[in-house]
Write a structure and sequence with these properties.
The complex is a heterotetramer, with two copies of chain A (about 240 residues) and two copies of chain B (about 375 residues).
Chain A (H helix, E strand, L loop, with lengths): L1 H12 L8 H32 L5 H13 L2 H12 L14 H25 L3 H9 L4 H11 L1 H17 L2 H7 L9 H10 L3 H32 L3
Helix pairs in contact in A: 1-11, 2-5, 2-8, 3-5, 4-5, 4-9, 5-8, 5-9, 8-11, 10-11
Chain B lengths: L6 E10 L2 E11 L4 E5 L6 H8 L7 E6 L2 E3 L4 H4 L2 E4 L10 H11 L4 H14 L15 H13 L5 E5 L7 H18 L2 E6 L2 H7 L2 E6 L2 E7 H6 L4 H7 L5 E9 L2 E6 L2 E6 L7 E6 L5 E4 L11 E13 L2 E8 L2 E7 L1 H7 L6 E6 L4 E5 L9
Parallel strand pairs in B: 3-8, 3-9, 6-7, 7-8
Antiparallel strand pairs in B: 1-2, 1-4, 4-5, 9-10, 11-12, 11-14, 12-13, 14-20, 15-19, 16-17, 16-19, 17-18
Helix pairs in contact in B: 3-4, 3-5, 4-5, 5-6
Classes of the chains: A mainly alpha (about 240), B alpha+beta (about 375).
Chain lengths: ~240, ~375, ~375, ~240
């Protein structure tokens, strides 16, 4: 177990030994994750509400798109974004490859379908008769939609947190489109891969503990949302 | 303040997938009337209510409000209506916010809203409950809040979908009582969906019986209950089949009707020789021991009869009686069956009032009861 | 074949978290009896049943089967029992496999199993339904399968948890009838949980009324129904409070009981001067117009009374009557209220049979009814 | 869009141009995924049944372990396994680092909590009164457990398929412990990362299409299980 002991000792020392690009890694991680989740929320929630609460032509297509988006492996998303942004790709002139923006684009493609899909489940769980009840009291379709989101708010929050978690935890897509450039596009997950392959276990452990702290905070939030939801549920 | 509205509909059809769940030719709720829609579960009652309440679009047919065609998009029409369902479906908010929901949508000012919510809660027996969390209430309390939420809007048409089905009889009794009073005071047209015909009878003046999406009987409660148009409806209502007879004469408004040789007295005005259908509710038929001395009384119909069959109906017994060829049904409690020792073949005396008999001319209609 | 067993328990307690859901001092089901456990929802009825059926461990107390202490680990004891619940809870399999479930666990050979399943289905009215998919049945059919699954085991104690609560009255009537016949034929001890006292009365010979986990009344149905020990129980059962009186005399087995000056006739054997409680079920009380001529009949109790109060109870009316100081309750249909024009202050005649009156000596017990 | 066109043309040609280690990649992918899922099923299902269907001392701990296992990012799992198997780690003498076995170990740690967690949800959804009903007919605890698994079988199958999907889609853990050695520990996801970073889009696209085919087959199975479950559910 010596390897673990040494690594942990090193991990504890690290923050006091001055910069290892640690701050940059953390800031980049937050920047990518928060931006991608915010855009994912803006794109995903209305789609989830539509899919979960109404019947219309094209709904099947939207569901298929959402499910496909959730299923496609991050490395494949990374590849496609890479090709789009590559010098010879259609968005090549924008010169986004190996930038934070490239990572945000890839992560939005990962988070939006998750947020849309889980929002649609939360919304579909609002009893139809509750909506009939609102309609019978005079609610317009817009007021009904607001009521649905309000009733499903804990589920929607859990959906957003789950999207955030996927973005923070993932490595494949950002590794491809970000390129893991120190001081620029290195995030926690790609840094962990890099350091552990180099045998720099101390640094890798330090990064992992940070990542775990973030992930567990997100998971605690999800659990709390779901738990409150159950408690407030109709018995 | 508000005046009740007439609600009617023709040719309503609604499908879910390939299954037709509602196929109702005609629905009529005169202004101020209380119409019960009854039938077994799965008969399409709730879907019919959603269509009539302009909450769901039918695949065919038209709903009319005071004679004017209306649909789900007529927000003005919808604003005259309000509904309460079996599960109270309260929103995640306080009692007051729940009750104020429809008022807010109608842009009633906050002060007026508070006043209305307060008085509405007081009326339904929940004075001062405004600030409670709606999701912590018991079943009966939540149902009261749901009713207050509908009633505070002073709807001109009120829809109730099995509002008492999941309540204990004690709680239910109080609530039925309070609701009946408010309906009477506010003069609403009320559409009341239930699977319990006793509950329907205690509230409604008109009844529609539904089976597998269709209306099998539709008319004044008394007529539907006493003259069910077919065997299924009779069984569902726990009624006997109507008897066929001929008017033999009339003295001071009391008809004498010849039913296969037996003369049944009934109140009504019909010419001699008219062919009629005759019905009596099983609850209104009293049985006496075959040799009991029964005095002359206000009950004009007294016959000797033979018990043909006894069968359970809910927690009562239904007794089929042979009156010299005419079959009559009586409903009696289990303790009466025990005490009288009722059994097939036994002779009994049958007594019912002339006012308890419903008579309709055979020529006045076929399936539908006017 | 099998002989019914006596089931009893003392000091049962069960908590969920910090809430005590069952706290029952004593439970008694004599061999072959049918005991109804009734009470509002949330009273702990189902939990009590689970404990008595050895399905859940109580936190305190002991269950006895034919006098021997038994618990959830006594598989042999549990093999004498079977249960059916409100939702039929069929397994994902054919009807035959569902019915055979308990037989398989008892290692009954396949051929014998097939024969038993076939006859059990036939008995409950589902002849030839063996190969149907259990999850495609209607509510009434599924409930029959659930009953067949329990009855095929020829249990010596049968537990039923609201088996008919979600059925239409027509379906329910048939099923109650079939079940009552089978219970009679097979001579089982039956514990029957329901929130509907009318259903309980039509099936059970003993009743336990539960409220908030406690037994508030426990004894023969007739006693519990006619002499409820407190106001809450009386209200829940839709009964009147018992009257206090003194035995004034006795002629040929018919007691005359002085209740604040009114003499009520009842069947029983009690000494003159004995202080007693007197009860009549509201359903057994007939009302007549104040001036109607009522002939001498088998109904020994006839009084003039004044209507004090009318209130809804479920879909009937409960009428409180003042017999010169003694308050009596009658239950009448809404149409009777209308026809007689009943209203507070009106004078009526009250008639009930001596056999409908329950008398108990005040000294023979306090809260618990023997 | 030329880059896409060229890459797809190249992807179509590839299978006819002889070995690029393609067969080895596919076989390794299947070997790792199926072994890891099988072991995950054997470890995860009993735990899921225990958590979902009973109350006992230590249940809280088991739930926390399962949830933590599901939350920990694959790169962190990769790091920990890497350290365990590294020359100086406690399992160093076994010389498993950069082998298929190392990847299976990491993937088992990923799939077991997923299978346990989803099995516990499926099992918890079996109505308690159905179990009381079985008990009342004479079922022992073991017969009751079998009945529960039988009633929840579609949910258990969906749990296993979800575990398989996570193993096939993931890249972080296998990249670290497998080392992405051509002909030995290279799997579809790590190969895609490698080829796309090298700009070999044709090969990357070919690998992605294969990966997508596998992932969509798994997802179709999950959807089918869930859908049949709904249809057969109690109304």
């Amino acid at each position: 177990m010596q390897v673990f002991f040494e690594a942990i000792v090193q991990a504890i020392r690290l923050p006091f030994e001055g910069s290892h690009g640690l701050l940059s890694v953390i800031l980049t991680t937050f920047e990518v994750a928060l931006l991608a989740t915010l855009i994912g929320f803006i794109l995903g929630t209305p789609v989830g509400l539509l899919i979960g609460a109404s019947r219309f032509r094209g709904r099947g297509l939207l569901i298929t798109l959402t499910n496909t988006g959730m299923a496609v492996p991050p490395v494949v998303i990374g590849l496609v974004v890479m090709m789009l942004l590559s010098r010879r790709g259609p968005l090549g002139p924008l010169e986004l490859l190996y930038t934070v923006d490239a990572m945000v684009i890839a992560q939005v493609i990962i988070s939006s379908p998750i947020i849309a899909g889980l929002t649609s489940s939360a919304v579909a769980a609002v009893p139809y008769r509750l909506r009939l009840q609102a309609r019978s009291l005079g609610a317009s379709w817009f007021q009904e939609a607001l009521l649905i989101l309000k009733e499903a708010r804990l589920g929607v929050l859990a959906a957003v947190a789950t999207g955030l978690g996927a973005v923070v935890r993932g490595v494949g897509a950002v590794l491809i489109v970000g390129g893991n450039i120190e001081g620029q596009t290195r995030v926690l997950t790609t840094a962990i891969v890099q350091e552990s392959r180099r045998g720099e276990f101390g640094l890798a452990i330090a990064l992992s503990l940070l990542l775990l702290a973030i992930v567990f905070a997100i998971n605690a939030a999800i659990t709390w949302f779901q738990h409150s939801g159950e408690k407030a549920g109709r018995g | 303040m508000s005046r009740p509205m007439m609600l009617s509909a023709v040719g309503l059809k609604k499908r879910f997938g390939s299954r037709t769940v509602v196929d109702v030719d005609r629905f009529d709720a005169p202004a101020g009337s209380t119409v019960a829609v009854i039938g077994p579960s799965g008969a399409g009652k709730t879907t019919l209510l959603a269509i009539l309440g302009l909450l769901e679009k039918p695949h065919a047919g038209q709903v009319y409000l005071d004679g004017a065609p209306v649909g789900v998009r007529d927000k003005a029409a919808r604003m005259n209506m309000a509904a309460a369902f079996q599960s109270p479906y309260l929103f995640k908010a306080s009692v007051a916010e729940n009750v104020a929901f429809g008022l807010k949508l109608r842009k009633v000012p906050a002060a007026e809203r508070r006043r209305l919510v307060e008085s509405s809660l007081a009326r339904i027996g929940l004075e001062g409950w405004e600030s409670r969390d709606a999701l912590t209430l018991s079943g009966g309390e939540a149902q009261r809040v749901a009713l207050a939420r509908a009633l505070v809007l002073r709807p001109r048409v009120l829809f109730l979908d099995e509002p008492f089905a999941s309540l204990d009889p004690l709680v239910k009794g109080h609530l039925v009582f309070d609701l009946a009073r408010i309906i009477r005071e506010d003069e609403m047209t009320t559409i009341y969906v239930t699977h319990d015909h006793a509950e329907a009878m205690s509230i409604a003046d008109r009844v529609m019986v539904m089976r597998e999406g269709r209306s099998v009987a539709h008319g004044p409660s008394d007529e539907v209950m006493k003259l069910p148009p077919d065997q299924w409806t009779a069984d569902f209502l726990g009624a006997g089949r109507p008897l066929r007879g001929v008017v033999a004469g009339s003295v001071e408004g009391v008809l004498s009707i010849d039913v296969s040789g037996v003369h049944i007295h009934a109140v009504g005005v019909l010419p001699e020789g008219e062919k009629v259908l005759v019905g009596v509710r099983p609850e209104d038929v009293l049985l006496f021991d075959g040799d009991a001395g029964i005095p002359r009384s206000s009950a004009r119909n007294r016959f000797h009869a033979v018990v043909v069959e006894l069968k359970m109906w809910g927690v009562m017994h239904q007794v089929t009686l042979d009156l010299e060829g005419a079959l009559l049904t009586a409903r009696v409690s289990n303790s009466s069956v025990r005490e009288m020792g009722l059994s097939p073949g036994m002779e009994v005396q049958v007594v019912f009032k002339a006012t308890a008999v419903r008579v309709r001319s055979e020529s006045s209609g076929s399936g539908e009861i006017p």
